[in-house]
């Protein structure tokens, strides 16, 4: 068995061209880890920021997630050859990630996926997106049937997954997008209403008679943090779990003056997936895969690239115009 592998490596900080193909040492798992032979992986916005040198943690071999088969598992927690998804657990941050041909992943961050005929590239569009969306809605927001939910950034990958999950759970969803031509598509996905994502959305909606929402999922980020709190009712919950609007902090933030009373505000970062507080075993990914396979939701990737075309994939990522998940397949 070869002791080396192919990997896509961040050679310096910059545009897509800094991603280079190199031959590197094949990782060796220790007890508590699984070695995954990567068949496909999703591309995430965090990896763009890592490539540019804008992230707090990064590994030259990035990649927050992957799907593939178990090549080795010293502790015996997973059977050899099992079809699995690996997500977070330091991947691409403090340890090599899914951009390698093989990757070692803590077993707490590996989910075995059984009885599915979904192709690798479609399976690769699911782990980070649906694990994050499910945790946001049901672990943090505690979304209940009949509640009103505002999803800001609903056409993003996590936004689309959250919309599917929320509608399936019986919530009444209002979805935002920057483009009016996407309104009808969002309604077809099950949104009760679609509105234009714009500054001062809270004022615009309240002036039109919109009641404040029970729950708000803010995927835009700090730029709309305060108004997302204002559009949520007292006793409701607002969760920030994305940075589509950029990483700049809230300027001159004064909670005493700017925040509404009684609204519960939380943050969720997907890097905690697989930790004791947010175990992957609590997420019904197998059921989600089954629903997608049965046609309940269309979760196909927006674009699939071959492993040798990572530059094109990252150029599309940089454009913010993919309209869904970008996947690389081997």
Which tags fit this structure?
six-stranded parallel beta sheet, 24% helix, 27% strand, alpha/beta, single chain, 15 strands, 330 residues, 10 helices, seven-stranded mixed beta sheet
Structure description:
By secondary structure, the chain is of the alpha/beta class. Helix content is 24%, strand content 27%. The protein is built from ten helices and 15 strands. Strands 3, 4, 5, 6, 7, 14 and 15 form a seven-stranded mixed β-sheet that branches. Strands 10-9-8-11-12-13 form a six-stranded parallel β-sheet. Strands 1-2 form a two-stranded antiparallel sheet. Helix 3 crosses helix 4 (157-168).
Tell me the major beta sheet.
Answer: 7 strands, mixed
N-to-C CA distance: 19 Å
How many β-strands, per DSSP? 15
The value of Rg in angstroms is 20 Å
Give the helix level as a range of percent: 10-25%
Estimated share of beta-strand residues: 25-35%
- Structural class computed from helices and strand pairing: alpha/beta
- The sequence of SSEs as H and E is EEEHEEEEHHEHEHEHEHEHEHEHE
Give the averaged pLDDT, no decimals.
Answer: 94
Catalogue the unreliable spans: none
Principal-axes geometry comes out as globular
Please work out how many helical segments DSSP would assign.
Answer: 10
Concise overview:
This protein is α/β, with parallel strands linked by helices and 330 residues long. The chain has helices at 45-52, 120-123, 127-140, 157-168, 183-188, 201-207, 225-230, 255-258, 285-293, 310-319; strands at residues 4-10, 19-25, 33-43, 65-72, 83-87, 102-106, 110-112, 148-152, 172-177, 193-196, 213-218, 232-240, 264-267, 303-306, 326-329.
């Amino acid at each position: 068995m070869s002791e080396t592998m192919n990997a896509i490596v961040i050679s310096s900080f910059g545009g897509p061209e800094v991603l280079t193909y190199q031959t590197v040492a094949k990782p060796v798992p220790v007890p508590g880890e699984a070695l995954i032979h990567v068949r496909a992986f999703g591309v995430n916005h965090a990896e763009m920021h890592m490539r540019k040198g804008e992230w707090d943690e990064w590994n030259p071999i990035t990649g927050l997630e992957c799907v593939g088969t178990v090549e080795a598992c010293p502790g015996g927690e997973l059977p050899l050859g099992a079809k699995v998804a690996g997500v977070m657990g330091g991947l691409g941050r403090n340890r090599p990630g899914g951009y390698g041909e093989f990757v070692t992943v803590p077993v707490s961050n590996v989910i075995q996926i059984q009885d599915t005929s979904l192709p690798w590239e479609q399976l690769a569009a699911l782990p980070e997106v649906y694990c994050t969306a499910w945790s946001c809605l049901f672990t943090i927001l505690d979304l209940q049937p009949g509640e009103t939910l505002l999803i800001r950034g609903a056409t993003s990958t996590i936004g689309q997954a959250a919309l599917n999950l929320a509608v399936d759970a019986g919530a009444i969803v209002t979805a935002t997008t920057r483009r009016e031509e996407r309104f009808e598509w969002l309604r077809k996905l099950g949104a009760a209403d679609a509105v234009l994502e714009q500054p001062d959305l809270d004022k615009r909606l309240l002036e039109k008679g919109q009641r404040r929402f029970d729950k708000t999922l803010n995927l835009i980020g700090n730029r709309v943090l305060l108004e997302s709190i204002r559009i949520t009712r007292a006793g409701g919950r607002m969760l920030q779990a994305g940075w589509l609007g950029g990483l700049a902090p809230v300027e001159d933030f004064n909670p005493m003056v700017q925040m509404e009373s009684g609204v519960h505000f939380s943050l969720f970062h997907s890097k905690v997936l697989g930790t004791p507080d947010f175990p992957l075993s609590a997420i019904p990914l197998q059921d989600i895969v089954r629903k997608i396979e049965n046609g309940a939701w269309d979760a196909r990737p927006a674009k699939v690239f071959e492993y040798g075309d990572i530059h094109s994939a990252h150029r599309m990522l940089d454009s913010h115009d993919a309209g869904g998940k970008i996947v690389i397949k081997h």
